[in-house]
Write a structure and sequence with these properties.
Largest sheet: 4 strands, antiparallel
Shape: globular
Number of helices: 22
Strand order of the largest sheet: 1-2-4-3
Bound molecules: arginine
Number of strands: 15
Strand content: 5-15%
């Protein structure tokens, strides 16, 4: 068990000894924000004391009297209004590193009680090219699924593609009347996009054309064989495009059910909502309205228009009998609960859909209150990618940036950098390095900001070899790999019993930071924030640099040399595993 867990368990026991009725699940031990005060800290006693109107420092003193950490920590200190500060014994730190060097752990524990988590992410719409915005849901979702799996949770990923909807009426007319087969062969998605634009414009100008599109859609919905066959072909062609992009990004899904999968249940969902009085008819459509259980400000079924609260229902059936995005999402939750009994369902979808998810979760709770008690429904939202001008990121000609083109450009730019640095490498190797650096840079730049904030897309910033970037971290990995190449095999960390010495302050600081890898992963999983891991790795690379600048490795005498090589090796392993958890590859040489 990692030392912070041990401290936490004993602290919880000590709290219970003093306050037998306390909820100790909130008694947590976290890295100390100020290393000069300690390695770990707990601020839980202050909240416990406040709730009971106790003096927090007195409570801390009482708890300390029951706390025995003599084998793990130096003297525990009470600070400020009632913080507890813990400092690990160097021997404990060294033993944890030695265990990691022996391959017993890599500074994280697998969850004692694994959760089952469904992650709904990426979810592009069929017959349209994936654009730059899709990197967000795809990258954040992938990093979260990797983190949760690493921690031993049971993860089910589902790409909820938009393969159903009114756009198919127009696409069907286009396919039947205006399809350019040669263009379809060359670039199917571009051709589908063209067809949609042409017919859409015609429909705008000519109501008869719009009626024609609606008629095609009705035929599709009724199962007309020809329309179904065309629709299936459009999905297949789109899937080929999606798969190419996912292949490049190294992203995989357990399922791609898509919206159309839920069609058979939609009628029953609406009927049930009507029968239970959760939905009602309004102007020919069916919707779920506010039940007045929330203050208007927090009620997603209300909007404020000119100072007045008016209904903003969740529509589940249109006046023409068609179903809505909401209806499909209700059926989807029902299906997921029945199929996988998850503890959590996580939707990685941009923040503009936040009202949709608020309505969805509340409607589902009103519909299946008991089922929903078992599961946490979470919308993991994120902001926009902006250009230099602060407006949504576009190409120079003002079009949306296609994701495929963006990845091409990332690789090309990285190739220039790699070629300048390593003119001597064979072309094949250079191309591979460029791919790893280019894709890594784009992914990392997207994961690094707090996910809810918008960020400005900058090639120069994300590809820089200095600063908080993927290339910087990849370069750190390559640098350590080169140190290991210079060290004779027998003296590397794989040698079992190498004792770890932590005399230099830079060694101890690096070691302590390594020990926080697991805590960081847990925080990422807890709050669905991969940026915590980015920042952890950046700090790790920084601590490694200070260590390497101040502590000779290859030139040191034994046993220091082996000990320091082990520190190098552990740092490389954590960096590599951390980047891999963010979906980012590394290379031995850069
Ligand atoms: N296809 C949708 C869109 O592009 C995203 C779907 C997200 N997932 C969901 N279950 N609603 O906006």
């Amino acid at each position: 068990m990692l030392p912070h867990k041990q401290i936490q368990i004993r602290l919880q026991a000590a709290v219970l000894a003093v306050l037998p009725d306390a909820d100790v699940s909130v008694v947590l031990v976290r890295p100390c924000p100020e290393p000069k005060f300690g390695d770990y800290q707990s601020n839980a006693l202050m909240a416990l004391a406040k709730a009971r109107k106790l003096n927090p420092r007195q409570l801390a003193t009482d708890v300390l009297a029951k706390l025995d950490l003599a084998d793990t920590c130096e003297k525990v200190e009470i600070a400020g209004a009632g913080f507890l500060n813990f400092r690990l014994k160097t021997a404990v730190l060294a033993e944890n590193l030695a265990a990691a060097a022996r391959g017993e752990h890599l500074f994280f524990d697998r969850a004692a009680t694994p959760k089952t988590v469904v992650i709904d992410f990426s979810s592009p719409n069929v017959a349209k090219p994936m654009h730059v915005g899709h990197i967000r849901s795809t990258g954040i979702g992938d990093a979260l699924q990797r983190t949760l799996r690493l921690l031993g949770h049971n993860v089910i990923t589902d790409n909820h593609i938009g393969d159903w909807g009114t756009q198919f009426g127009k696409l069907l007319i286009g396919w039947k009347q205006a399809l350019d087969r040669v263009a379809l062969e060359r670039d199917a998605i571009a051709e589908l996009e063209r067809l949609y634009k042409v017919i859409n414009a015609e429909c705008d100008a000519n109501p008869a054309r719009l009626e024609e599109a609606k008629a095609e859609l009705v035929k599709l919905q009724a199962g007309d064989a020809e329309n179904i066959a065309i629709w299936k072909e459009m999905i297949r062609l789109s899937q080929v495009q999606f798969d190419t992009i996912y292949g490049r990004l190294g992203v995989k899904f357990d399922h791609t059910y898509g919206e159309s999968f839920y069609n058979p249940w939609l009628g029953a969902v609406v009927n049930d909502l009507l029968a239970r009085g959760i939905a009602r008819e309004s102007e020919g459509a069916v919707g779920v309205f506010s039940d007045s259980s929330l203050p208007p400000k927090e009620d997603p079924f209300l909007v404020n228009r000119d100072g007045e609260w008016v209904a903003d229902p969740a529509l589940v059936r249109k006046s023409d009998g068609g179903f809505n995005y909401m209806t499909t999402d209700l059926a989807t939750i029902d299906y997921r609960l029945k199929t996988w009994s998850p503890t959590e369902i996580v939707y990685v979808v941009d923040d503009r859909q936040s009202p949709h998810f608020k309505k969805l979760f509340l409607t589902f709770a009103r519909w299946q209150g008991d089922a929903v008690k078992q599961v946490k429904l979470v919308h993991v939202g994120f902001g926009k990618i902006l250009g230099d001008d602060g407006k949504p990121f576009k190409t120079r000609s003002g079009d949306t940036v296609k994701l495929g083109d963006l990845l091409d450009e990332a690789t090309e730019r990285a190739l220039k950098i790699a070629a300048e640095k390593n003119a001597a490498l064979p072309a094949g190797e250079l191309n591979n390095i460029a791919k790893v650096i280019g894709l890594g840079a784009v992914k990392y730049a997207d994961l690094l900001p707090n996910r809810q904030s918008d960020y400005i897309f900058s090639w120069d910033k994300m590809l820089a070899l200095q600063g908080n970037t993927a290339p910087y971290l990849q370069y750190a990995c390559a640098r350590i790999a080169s140190i290991r190449r210079k060290a004779p095999v027998a003296a590397t960390a794989s040698q079992p019993a190498a004792p770890i010495g932590l005399e230099a302050p830079e060694e101890a600081a690096l070691a302590k930071h390594l020990l926080n890898f697991g805590l960081t992963l847990e925080a990422v999983a807890e709050e669905y924030r991969p940026n915590y891991l980015c920042n952890y790795l950046y700090e790790l690379a920084g601590k490694f640099t200070s260590f390497y600048e101040n502590c000779p490795v290859l030139k040191a005498e034994e046993p220091t040399r082996s000990s320091r090589l082990a520190l190098c090796d552990l740092t490389a392993r954590v960096l590599k595993k951390g980047l891999e958890t963010l979906g980012i590859e590394t290379v031995e040489q850069m």
